[in-house]
From TrEMBL:
Full protein name: Thioredoxin-like fold domain-containing protein
Lineage: Eukaryota, Fungi, Fungi incertae sedis, Mucoromycota, Mortierellomycotina
Matching PANTHER family: ACR183CP (PTHR33875:SF2), OS09G0542200 PROTEIN (PTHR33875)
Source organism per UniProt: Linnemannia elongata AG-77
A Pfam cross-reference name: Thioredoxin_4
Location of the Thioredoxin-like fold domain: 11-185
């Protein structure tokens, strides 16, 4: 599956001309997504780049699960970061997974949308000097109106980017996270609980 230029940050390892593609459909507030991300980000990617350079590109795909309302807001924040500095998409994604419990249902049930945007922007500012709180927040925030008649329902400056990822997941037939694709086909054998050795065995049979 191709990756539009504006989402270049979603290629978290390898290059577009790699022989193989591993796609990870993940939700930032899904515990199992966090589990597979940690193993891949911390161990699998360095091993791949050292042992099989140029063989595999790894692409992160936003799988937004609406039964967790904050999933949309957290994904928006990651897309805002990518728009500002694509190189920070993966580090910020890692920060989101590390801090994912801050965005679980019970943690945000009494927080407004704007409060959550401010929290996400503050986290971004701790990730890189290129990601100022105000810069990220400016892409996320929505100005309130005095009356319902004034409302436009246009969303924020990230809404169109968000729509792309939702449409992609639906078109591809992805239902839950994590879901992993190998060369465009869903690979049901891959588990979020895999060790590095199991990942090595998988690639040993594929490369």
């Amino acid at each position: 599956m191709s990756l539009p230029p504006q989402f270049s940050g979603h290629r978290i390892s390898g290059k577009a001309d790699a022989k193989h593609t591993l796609e990870l459909y993940l939700d930032y507030v899904c515990p199992f997504s966090a589990k597979i991300w940690k193993q891949v980000y911390e161990n699998v990617l360095p091993w791949l780049e050292q042992q099989h350079p140029g063989q595999v590109q790894v692409i992160f795909r936003n799988q937004i699960q609406p039964w967790h309302p904050s999933s949309t807001l957290v994904a928006e924040a990651a897309l805002a970061v990518e728009q500002i500095d694509p190189a920070q998409f993966a580090p910020y994604s890692n920060a989101l997974f590390v801090n994912q419990k801050s965005y679980f249902d019970e943690a945000v049930v009494d927080k407004t949308r704007t409060e959550q945007y401010k929290s996400l922007s503050a986290l971004a500012a701790t990730t890189s000097p290129s990601l100022s709180h105000d810069k990220v927040l400016s892409l996320l925030q929505i100005a309130p109106v005095s009356t319902a008649a004034e409302a436009t329902n246009y969303g924020n400056k990230i809404t169109n980017e968000l729509k792309y990822h939702i449409k992609l997941g639906r078109q591809t037939g992805i239902h839950v996270s994590p879901t992993v694709l190998w060369d465009g086909i869903i690979e049901n054998s891959i588990s979020s609980g895999w060790t590095l050795e199991q990942w090595k065995e998988f690639f040993g049979n594929k490369l």
